[in-house]
Amino acid sequence: MKLSDFDYELPLDRIAQIPSEPRDAARLLVDCGRSAGSLRVEHRQVHDLPDYLRAGDLLVVNDTKVIPGRLRLQRSSGGAVEVLLLDPLTPTSTRWTALVRPGGRLREGEVLHHAQSGTEVIFHGRAEESDSFIVELCFTGDILELLNKIGEIPLPPYITSALPSSDRYQTVYSRRPASAAAPTAGLHFTARLLQTLSDRGIEIAHVELVVGLDTFQPIQVEDPLDHKMHTEFYSVSEHVMEQVDKAQRVIAVGTTAVRSLESAIARDELSGRTNLFIHRGFDWQAVDMMMTNFHLPRTTLLLMIDAFIGDRWRDIYATALESGYRFLSLGDAMLLDRHATEGP
């Protein structure tokens, strides 16, 4: 396996800069397998999803919420520093792992300042065995309340336009604020679409995977299997696992919902930290179908898609590019079926 096996050309103008309105108006490329060697797909919209599911199916969503964890700070010299909070290290959430720019130039113990609020942040150097750093927020109150005042919702670096509202980078069913990025396949759902699915006998289950560093980490080694996955917190309730066992089919909304379910089974633990790396040859236990956005080349997310439907992903991505689909976090979606027929 080579990293080049998971590469493709993504023109910049295909990277969505604004979300579809309404949410479920985004396009949906439906994977129908292959017949006589040719790819079979249908071009629909997300609000058509109920046409492809049936009573007895289970739709699983990741209900994590993005924290306003991007902090724009200053050094005593006046130089700008940007901090992106990833994971709290203490019960009081004062120490965090974080991405820091320019982290390599800061001194351990250096105090950074938020100009408007006067809040101080101490830089504690590089985290052990990690590409991230450790920072400490000098604040004794509710940290989330502080972040809501001084932080920003962190958008991926390839999105250069401001969103009309920060709510558009949250799912309508988000619950616990914890993640550094949104589970973006879920951004397409509206309350009305969820109600339509429920009315048709499709159960909806919630899991949690706190989206962290790997979302921002491209694979940088020639053999993708040498890539080191960072751990992320996940939680799946016993009730959800019972629903999975009883469901006719399990449809995961996004790669993070996939990792939650498959981690709970592979690790035989309903919650904890997972570094599960899903790639070709993976023994699927829970997920039958996956609704997901189109991913960056050379990423672990694309390796997961390859593990799910094989090299058919190449034809699907080529068709999507030819057909004008919008890619990445704010783009369109696809509905993948690992049981779809691969005809001769």
What are the SSEs and their pairings?
Layout (H helix, E strand, L loop, with lengths): L26 E9 L2 E8 L12 E5 L2 E2 L3 E5 L5 E9 L6 E7 L9 E3 L6 E7 L6 E6 L4 H8 L26 E3 L11 H9 L3 E7 L22 E4 L2 H9 L3 E4 L1 H12 L4 E4 L14 E5 L6 H10 L2 H11 L10 E5 L7
Parallel strand pairs: 1-17, 3-12, 3-14, 4-11, 14-16
Antiparallel strand pairs: 1-2, 5-6, 6-7, 7-10, 8-9, 9-10, 12-13, 13-15, 16-17
Q: What does this molecule look like?
A:
Keywords: Cytoplasm, Queuosine biosynthesis, S-adenosyl-L-methionine, Transferase. InterPro entries: QueA, QueA_dom1, QueA_dom2, QueA_sf. GO terms for molecular function: S-adenosylmethionine:tRNA ribosyltransferase-isomerase activity. By secondary structure, the protein is an alpha/beta fold. It has two domains: 3-66 and 163-337, QueA-like (3-Layer(aba) Sandwich), CATH 3.40.1780.10; 70-150, Thrombin, subunit H (Beta Barrel). Helices cover 17% and strands 27% of the residues. It has six helices and 17 strands. It has helices spanning 143-150, 191-199, 238-246, 255-266, 300-309, 312-322; strands spanning 27-35, 38-45, 58-62, 65-66, 70-74, 80-88, 95-101, 111-113, 120-126, 133-138, 177-179, 203-209, 232-235, 250-253, 271-274, 289-293, 333-337. The strands form three sheets. A nine-stranded mixed sheet has the order 2-1-17-16-14-3-12-13-15. Strand 5 (70-74) and strand 6 form a beta hairpin. The longest helix has 12 residues, at 255-266. The two termini are 25 Å apart. The model has no long low-confidence stretch (mean pLDDT 94).
